[in-house]
Amino acid sequence: MPARERSGASVLPKILALPVLSELVLDGFAYGGNYLVEFDSDSLWYETSLFMVARALGLGMKTEYHTFMHMPSHLRQSLARFDLDLKSLEEKHLFNIVDTYTGLTGLPIRGEPRLTASGLSGEIHKSSYLSELTAQIVKLTERGVPEDAKGWLHVDDNTSIFNRYFSEREILEMFQTKVFPFFKLAEITTIHAQLVGAVSDSFLKQFEAQCDGVIDFKSREEEGDIERYVRPRAFREKVCDSRWRHLHLLDNGKIALDSRPLKDDQLGIRGWLRGPKKKK
Q1: How many domains does the chain fold into?
Q2: Segment 207-259, tens digit of pLDDT
Q3: Pairing assessment for the beta strands 153-156 and 63-67 based on DSSP bridges
Q4: pTM for the whole thing?
């Protein structure tokens, strides 16, 4: 019998069903998996991330939102429309906001404690951040990750903010050698999010290669309207339908996903991905 079972600690299921995204990847997501969302600036990634977190909390998942672009107060206002008792969830250590954005503003605004559920903390705009984070991860690994720090869902709104403060080589090395292994050890399922166009193609490809799955959030103009789409592009050891699906933002903040996959030739998706034809 595994040690965690003998000690009476809860044993996590092998598969995690993430709201919205699991409709695209029927095999589910692995605890400790690192997944990458690549999104356009006018896609529905942010709205989807809020709805996904709200649904996860409603299902009893321990959930953490890492905000790089929004004030925690604005985040709470957005989540409040889903009839969640956030105060109670936070007091019970079921919901946590990691506030990086307030510190980045440089304004005299009181923010949230910059502390993750696993105990990691720091301010990414300081030059000492990477070395401090490395030391924290090493110490936590040596001590052993506490059981109550395991099994969380961690969602970033925009991980590419790191690229404003550190070189691509430094970020890739940190994530590959410290962040990804630690999240796996702590069985924290993490959704990283990279803004397409904010980082180099080389960086994006190397980041993709380290992740367990890649999901695209795109937008395009059709007959004067902006339409939004999503697809699971590639997943390791999992079968997924990589066709584009249409996303809808409803008035109540919920995200609706077309159950019927779109055919490429219906919207010219293949041409869209290839770009405009070259003139002869």
Answers
A1: 1
A2: 999 999 999 999 988 888 889 999 999 898 777 888 899 999 999 999 998 86
A3: parallel
A4: 0.87
